[in-house]
Amino acid sequence: MAELQPAGPVGRPVPRVDGVAKVTGAAHYVDDLDLPGAWHGATVRSTVAHGVLDAVDLDPDYDWTDVVVVTAADIAAAGGRNVVTLIEEDQPALVPLGGRVMHVDEAIALVAAPTRARALEARRHVRPRISARPAVLDTDAALRAEVKLYGDDNVFKRFVIRKGHGDDAAFEDAMAGADRIIEGVYPTAAQEQMYIEPQGMAAHWEDGRCFLVGSMQCPYYVHKAMKALLGCDGDGVVVTQAVTGGGFGGKEEYPSMIAAHVALLARKAGRPVKLIYDRGEDIAATTKRHPCVTRHRLGLAADGAIVAIDADVVMDGGAYLTLSPVVLSRGVLHAAGPYRCPVVRIVGRVVATNHPPHGAFRGFGAPQTTFPYERQIDKAARLLGVDPLAYRQRLALRPGDTTATGQELTFSVGSEAVLEAIARAAGPRPARDAVSAGGAPVRRGRGVCFYFHGSGFTGAGEQRIAGRATVALTAAGDVEVRSSSTDIGQGAATIFAQIAGASLGLAPERVRVVDPSTDKVPDSGPTVASRTCMVVGGLVERAARALGTRIAAWAGEHGRGGAPFAEVAAAAAAALGEVAETVQYEPPPGIEWDDATYTGAAYPVFGWAACLVDVAIDLDTCEVTVERCVQAVDVGKAINPMIVKGQIEGGTLQALGWGLLENVLYQDGKVANASMTNCIVPTFADAPDLETVLVEVPYPYGPHGAKGVGEIPMDGPAAAAINAVVDALGVDFDVVPVLPETIAARRDAWDAARRKS
Amino acid sequence: MTATGYVRPASIAEAVAARAAHPDWIVLCGATDLMVEAPLRPAPVGVVDVWALAELCGIAEVDGGAVRIGAATPWRDVVTSPLIAARAPILAAAAREIGALQIQARGTIGGNVGTSSPVGDSLPVLLALDATVELASPRGTRRVPYRDYPTGYRTTALAADELIVAITIPAAHPGARQLWRKVGTRRAQSISKIMAAALLRVEAGRFVEARIGLGAVANRPIRAAGAEAAIVGAPVGEATADAAAAALAAELTPITDVRSTAPYRLATVQQVVRRFVLEASSPSSPD
Amino acid sequence: MRSSDGSLIEVHLTVNGDAVRRAVPPERTLAELLREDLLLTGCKQGCDQGDCGACTVLVDGRAQLACLTLVVAIDGATIETVEGLQQRGRLHPLQAAFVAHGAAQCGFCTPGMLLSAVALLRASPRASRDEIRAGLAGNLCRCTGYVKIIDAVEAVARGDDEEPAP
Questions:
Q1: How far apart are CA B229 and CA B212, in angstroms?
Q2: Which of A217, A236, B7, C72 is the most buried (most CB within 10 A)?
Q3: Are B268 and B198 in the same domain?
Q4: What is the pLDDT of residues A24-38, one digit of tens each?
């Protein structure tokens, strides 16, 4: 493990640049904005999962004074296209008359009124008439394709990854060479992001231009979508991020939908409009983690080495394509796990159903495929009678090994380091049996998990995005970082201030990170994919250096050669006016990816992590307590250890929640538990004191060695926790989540196992 | 919520008069249920707000060692009351698990009884401790045994002109064990999947008294009469615990909903009641 | 007895030390009053159903949920919000500790969390980690995994952070 020396502010737990605003209430989120004269919007939604929209009736007995109603007809009338542009344009902003209703809670019409209460009241008087059709509510039904939702087969996207074999027959030959084969089917459930700030957006129009401000991760996604919807060019719409109360992927693509709605309402109302979702609506209508089923076969040699891996991944994409192909891509690219294996076949499909579209959520497909392989590896270790952590250490990919796509790992491979960190942190197992305060028998178990996560966009994605960032010395003498990377709580603004400050010899508080607005910042790409620090941070570093070089040159020409930036900046700004340096992404050398065969370097670099969880299970109630959770993560370089640990801790608890507690319930295509009361996330009382070990194996092409960290803590802890439950009870649980109900349903099996042991 | 009428009486007499004058208004006693359910139910015409009514607040010992709790007493006061800790420890235990501190500062015992939700956290305790509800109306005051108070899904014995004034918990036999268990969706701020409260008393190796109150396993809080019958008169030990659990299977038909499943509810309430019997069977563990 | 039959009801409150007099309809919540009438938007609305705790403010010193509290029901009360925590321009020790320990990430739960912590430490100035867990359990955070929030409150309870360093 290499140690980099702190270079100025880098590597130190600098307090967040937005910390004081957030603890004093001065930070203004979209619903906090005081917009004089603003009306409030509300969305009329479908109550059926699949059908045809025959009419949108307005209650003739209702007083429609001071109410604006928008339908799909308003879009074309103004020269726009009724689409929410993302990868494809299959999703309308509002279902048109005669168009297909594809899911419950799909937007059909919009209302706005002077108060929120009035808008909600008016909404009840807009009555869509829909002819219902049979709905497709699970992936098996989707694959039968008796009801066609997308193409002929309802498959949005299919990927095949092959390593070490030519065709299926050759693959089966290789698998047949295994001494034993472990098979399993691993369903994982949807998960709600549950950012504490509900989604929301405000819009107003001025001189024919639309100004949007709201809660979002990706201003340029919204910008692109609005150009198509409003039929304008890039200058016709300005998108600004308000302080955003968490995203976790949930505010990656859906804000484009809300932006579309509020822009249409504001145009028709001729005044500012706010559209703030209430919690139930947010849970019911916006995107969630894709439910997924993985069929996995693990072929083992007699000595326990992996001979072949076969994974078949099916995700429920929901009603529209949205980001599903990309989520599936990341899922399949991680499905073989960070293990040495000569022969790998992974088939992935994401299919159309009549659920609300599933979408981005931290981990982006990888948690769904990590859980299966980590259960399989655990089963193998048990079968072989070897220690699960030692077995993982034996099989782990190391420098010189190749991944499932044939990517040779040459640098920044923290696999051994994170496993070693967990081995060191593990400590003795707690006593296996105990008695609770109420007299109930308690059983304990320990589970581990090992995983990796590609940093940045897949394959040639970063080249396609060609993200840009600017560091400027303003005419007033201030240093500004301008990028479209949003701070959604993860600390991007602080990290950028540290990186730019380090390059220019400035304290971070001397660097202003501009609030992202499409008329003020270049497109740095979206705030997703564990790319903000590594990719955009790298751009900020290069741009800051370029700025430093320019100012140094000016200083040299003016007799102050060698003077620090801080000393000459004011004079340079006075003489030159604004000096801005903008740089564009350049891929590291030797990164080759073939999209046609899905081979090559899937990611510039991987983060590596391992996790250990101790659980205690109350055998009366089957409630699981996570008594300990240690996660070791190779982050390359922690630019700000406090912020990085905060990211890891937050992701870890989301993962434990997904594994043991959270559960989105669909009933007839509708979210049946669309409230915070019933769609629960962990509280203080559910969280152990999470332990985090930072491991730094630097990435030579990242800023100060940093690589991605945002998603990896979400990938593994659920598997570690469920492996711990299995360890405690001696029977397999192959599903996410494992709730007390799941455990209780198998009481006879584990009771028998327990009495035997 | 939208309401046009509002009354904040200064005395029980005023409150009773207001209730009688506005039988279609609802009584607000903390409002933690009312406000949450507001979007789901028809807007009330008006509210009679008794939350801050001093005469309805307070915990006091009354005749013969019983404890009287004013209807508008917030949970926080129940949690911290030495009298409750001594006489009805399982009521304090239940109160401690209601919502979180913010809810405990506002929510009241009268509100819990009035809403009469099948998952009302204190209600199984009131059954196990054989509490009485004191109701006032222009016709006078009457006392209803709590076991007769819930009549169906969120329906109660309360007449349209009546006001809940207090809950009284009679003195328990000093040898009785009080037991309580809530199994919620999570460890705090949670709705119950099942709740069980019990008062069990053993003399000379046999159970001589057994009252078991259950929540979230029926359309209202209920006494487990079958299990009680299996326990009373039976000897301490596993066999009685098993018999009580078996009796529950015969008398309960819990439902599956968004919070749990019918099999889990039944199995877990059986395990919990079984554990109660075993705990009460062990002589060395007075609570 | 106070009563109203459709008209507005006059209410007197003390908010962050200032006397406030307002005529409100019976259904007006404290969250609406604070946010819309007084522009004290530090009181956040994350669920409007008493689940998330983001709207927590102090009512007569007790942490309560502004979204479930009717203004008419708290006539005469003293309200403290996050905007009133600073004294003479200095951060409250808990505010300073939240910044120093990285307890605020997205920040949306932070004002409510701070007020629950203020109430907790007034009642138990030396609260342990377990007491902090119990005292804040009505406030949800989805960013932090809670660790750094507990660290921050514990630091104040232990008197570690009199002059918080970065």
A1: 10
A2: A217
A3: yes
A4: 999 999 999 999 999
